[in-house]
């Protein structure tokens, strides 16, 4: 009876703590080792340049402690410097409300035996100009965060890199290429017109 009461209580509690209010970042252990290819301060172009992310289970944690991990999601996250005065990028301990990591790089089944996993990502065209790092979350079978790892220090000050967003950068180029295409079509018609007149 006492055991059942305890089970019910812990079920309700875990509902409150995990499903209903969401997991807090501070409750997670950093059991994943995550590295990203950028060198500190390196600048990348959105929609064009690539970064490679590598992740693995940190073997100093007990082996088998990752048996509840079912999925791994790698995300691109705003560094503190790019969150200043931007509430829509704010870090909140409750992961349901956290806005630090808004961009998915990849989601994969977790493989505890594969050692180093890596993925090369072409930075999405929608990534805005900012300073970033990479974070991985491991999820349980029911989609609750179980652990994390990140390519920067706990204070998020090391190994940060920059992305130059596409807006402003490609606009003039796009306009130029549209004008150029229009011009080519006109020139083509003009060419046929002249040729036709020559024949007549
Ligand atoms: C693995 O975890 C230990 C304990 O938290 C930590 O000291 C160590 O730096 C981690 N290893 C790597 C490669 O991050
Ligand atoms: C996990 O990785 C190992 C080693 O790379 C591979 O042999 C195995 O097929 C993988 N398992 C899954 C489920 O992908
Ligand atoms: C993973 O990669 C790191 C660095 O490249 C290496 O030191 C480590 O031994 C590798 N681990 C496995 C399990 O392959």
Please explain how this structure is put together.
With about 200 residues, the chain is α+β, with helices and mostly antiparallel strands. It has a single domain (about 25-170), classed as Macroglobulin (MG2) domain (Immunoglobulin-like, Sandwich), CATH 2.60.40. The protein has helices spanning about 1-20, 170-200, and strands at about 30-35, 45, 50-55, 70-80, 105-110, 115-120, 130-140, 145-150, 160-165. The strands form two sheets. Strands 2, 4, 5, 7, 8 and 9 form a six-stranded mixed sheet that branches. The model has no long low-confidence stretch (mean pLDDT about 85).
Name given to the CATH homologous superfamily: Macroglobulin (MG2) domain
Would you count the extended β strands for me? 9
What name does CATH use for the topology?
Answer: Immunoglobulin-like
Under CATH at level 1, the class stands as Mainly Beta
Percent of residues in beta strands?
25-35%
Shape: elongated
């Amino acid at each position: 009876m006492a055991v059942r009461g305890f089970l019910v209580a812990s079920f309700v509690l875990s509902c409150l703590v995990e499903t209903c209010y969401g997991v807090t970042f501070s409750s997670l252990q950093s059991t994943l080792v995550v590295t990203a290819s950028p060198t500190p301060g390196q600048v990348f172009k959105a929609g064009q340049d690539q970064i490679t992310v590598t992740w693995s289970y940190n073997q100093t944690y007990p082996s088998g402690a990752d048996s509840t991990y079912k999925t791994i999601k790698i995300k691109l996250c705003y560094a503190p410097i790019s969150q200043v005065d931007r509430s829509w990028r704010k870090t909140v301990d409750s992961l349901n409300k956290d806005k630090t990591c808004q961009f998915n790089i990849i989601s994969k089944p977790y493989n505890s035996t594969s050692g180093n996993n890596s993925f090369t990502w072409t930075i999405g065209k929608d990534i805005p100009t900012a300073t970033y790092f990479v974070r991985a979350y491991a999820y349980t079978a029911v989609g609750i965060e179980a652990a994390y790892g990140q390519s920067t220090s706990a204070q998020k000050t090391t190994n940060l890199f920059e992305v130059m967003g596409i807006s402003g950068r490609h606009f003039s180029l796009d306009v130029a290429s549209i004008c150029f295409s229009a011009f080519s079509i006109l020139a083509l018609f003009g060419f046929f017109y002249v040729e036709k007149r020559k024949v007549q």
